[in-house]
Structures are given as structure tokens and as C-alpha cells.
Amino acid sequence: MTAMISDLMRQVTDPASRHDPYPLYARLRENRVNLLADGGYALGRYEDVAGLLHDPRISSDPHNLSGPVPELPRDAAPFIQRDPPDHDRLRAIATRYFGPPVSPGMVSGLEPEIRRLVDSLAGSLPRSGEADLVDHFAYPLPVSVICGLLGVPRDDEPKFRAWTESMVKGLDAQEQDGADELARQADQGRAAMAGYIGNLVTRHRQHPDGSMLSQLANDNAADAMTDVELIATGLLLLIAGHETTVNLTANGILTLLRNPWALDRLRGEPGWVVPLVEELLRFEPPVQYLPRRVARTDIEIAGTTIPKGARVVLLLAAASRDPERFPHPDRFDPDRADNQHLGFGGGIHYCFGAPLARLEAQHELVTFARRFTNPRLAADPPPYRPSPVLRGPIHLPVTYGKLLPG
Ligand code: HEM
Fold first, then answer.
1. What is the rounded distance in angstroms from the CA atom of residue 403 to the CA atom of residue 386?
2. pLDDT in tens, 92-121
3. How confident is the model at residue 180 (pLDDT cuts 50, 70, 90)?
4. I need a labelling partner for 47 at 20 to 30 A (CA). Which of 126, 185, 218, 332 fits?
5. Best mutation site among 103, 212, 244 for ligand 1 pocket (most ligand atoms within 8 Å of CB)
6. At what angle do helices 245-258 and 140-150 cross, to 10 degrees?
7. 3-state class of 70 per DSSP?
8. Residue 353 beta carbon below 6 angstroms from any ligand 1 atom
9. Could you tell me if 284 and 304 are in contact, meaning their C-beta atoms sit under 8 angstroms apart?
10. Whole-prediction pTM value?
């Protein structure tokens, strides 16, 4: 049996849906499998998405797609686009320098610096009036943190911002008009960024500084990354490290302002930020879907055969609002029990930076609740970033009475 072709994913990518794609996801969940106009398949039920995240018949490597071979050779692709055993080897090497055994306490050791940065960002805002809490609060923190951690000069941000933007636009090119042009620009952005990281690697070999890139560049272990692998990893960490966390914080501030009871409670009970951030990852996830998994073999689901080589879209945000899995899924409820959301994905590609992302967002939201009196949204909905995949406000103008001291 073949599913009917659905144009709902096209509607999801339409900028007009960006402020509220959830009704479209509800419709996508009506079918277990949705056949898309380009021959891809989209799934949105929790059981199916969670199952396929852990299913070895599903690949993350675009070279397994039927059709033209991707321009980027497999060896130059970051480990998020690789399958075992290469994925596992590269992720394991990167993990050594992000935590135990080589760098235990890496993330928890960053906490004082994160606290200092958050306070200084808040302190640089006007004492009262209005501020854009994306440009001046949510965005600069993860950029500074990932730059410091990796060993990337913070002042180079304007340079890599443009390359990152073109790469992010290429993520969901399939569903959009001008897909080929978007993909070409994404390749150009990636090449420029790779050249930039390559130069940094050379510098870190001449002047090691203990940063993650420096340690990876001077790794003499038998299984050390090649230069091409190292560049792909640096690029992945730099982008993944900031393009997502900004949206978690911005979606968080937006959700708190739409739910003043939650903001009040957080003010009095800062420790509540822990379940609150988990609920945000379910309710307004910064990564809405994984647009480019591939079936390695024919996969049958509920009478539909997804053929070998087909693109598979895993709708994380739809699955995290599946009423079969979460009671009252459209209700923002940080106290809900058993909140196994898919905000950080699942299986072997489960988010590498989750502990860091959580820590950054928790500090930002607690500081926001503590230091701003009478905050209000100046625009609801706010304007959104273009990407339907990495979704969040591009600006978040907020008015407030007073900025309290840190
Ligand atoms: C709120 C912030 C974040 C969210 C929502 C998020 C979400 C995700 C998701 C959904 C995946 C799975 C992708 C897939 O299966 O294809 C992923 C993977 C990944 N994330 Fe994050 N991420 C966040 C922050 C970070 C940070 C701060 C870093 C870096 C320090 C990071 C590094 C990575 C890497 C390297 C992968 C690939 C893992 C692999 O392929 O094994 N992420 N992330």
C-alpha cells in the first residue's frame, strides 16, 4: 500500500507557518507515513520516530540516498552525517576532549564563566525600556562559550555568521523553491568555513592553548583524526554549539512571557528551571526535525514500504507532541511526569552538547526571571529565523520596567 502524497511538509517550510507549525504536525501525525512530493517520507508519531532513531536500517549518510552523489566526499563529512563504524570512532575521539577521560569537568567547569557572561550581557542592556533579547542576550552567550571551548577567536563571529547562515538555509532545501541555488550557497559557505577552520588548526599546532581544537590538532593517539576529519568536526561543533542554543533560550523567554504564572514561579524557585528547560525541549524544540535520514534497505511501516535509498524525515517536534505519548501535549507543563522528549534526538546521534546547552539555557532563563521587572513581549508572535528546522525567533523585542542589579 502506498501513502497519499502530502504537501504538509511544504506548508511547514512556508515562512507563514513558522510561528506555529504544530497544527500542521498534528495533521502529519494522522498518517503513520507521509509520502512527500520529492519522493521522501515523513513520520511524526512518537513510537515511529523514536524507533527509527534507534534503527540501524536508517542511515545519516547522504551518500546512501538514491540519486546524484553529494558533492562533499564521505571522508570530509562531519560525524553527524556518518554511520558506524566511522561515526562511532570520530564521536569517541571528540568526546575525550569534551569530558572524561581527558577533560573531566569540562562542562561543569564552564559554569562560573557562563554565569559571568550571562550577568555581563544582562548588565549591558538599557536600565529600563526595551531590548532585543536575541541579539543582546540569547545569541551572544553560546557564541562566546563555544568559541572559548573550541579555541576559535570570538571576534571572528561576523565572518562565520554569514557562512553558517548559508549552511543552515541548505538544511531544508528540498522542500523549498530554488532548492538547487540554496544547496550551492550552502556548499560555498561550508567550503569557506572549512578553509577558516583549517587555518585555525595550523595555528593551534604552532601555539597550543589547551582548547578543544588545540587538543584535537595535537592528538598523537594511534586513532587520531586526519586533518580533513578534524576540520569537519570543528565546523560541526562550532555551528551546532551556537545555532541551536540561541533558539532554546529565545523560545524559553517567549514561552515564559506567554505564561506569566511560570515566570513568577521561576522567580521564586530558580531550581525549577531544570524541568522547565526539559519541557521547553519538548514543547518548543530548537531542532524541529531531522530532514535527511536515509533508508538503507526497504522498510515497511503500517503497510507502506519506504524503499531503499529514500529520504526519511523524522519529525522530532511532532513526536514530542504526540498525544499517544504525552497527555495534553499542547499544554506547557514543566511538572509533567516522564518527559522523554526527543529535543536532543536519540540513538547513536543523540546530541553531543546536551549538558552544555542545558547549562547555558538554565542560567539565561533564571537571570531573565530574576533581573527584569514587569517584562512584556513587544511583538507576539515575534519575527522568526528563516529555517523551519532550526526554529526560533530572529529578534525578541521585550519591554521592561527596570533591570535589577546582578
Ligand atoms: C538547545 C541546544 C541544542 C539542541 C536542541 C540540539 C539538538 C541536537 C539534535 C536533535 C541532534 C541529533 C541530530 C541527528 O540525529 O542527526 C544533535 C546532535 C549533535 N549536537 Fe546538538 N543540540 C544542541 C546544542 C548543542 C551544542 C551546544 C553542541 C556542541 C557543544 C552540540 C553538538 C552536537 C553534535 C556534535 C551532534 C552530532 C552527534 C552525533 O552525530 O553523534 N549540540 N543535537
1. 31
2. 999 999 987 777 888 999 999 999 999 999
3. confident
4. 332
5. 244
6. 150
7. coil
8. yes
9. no
10. 0.96
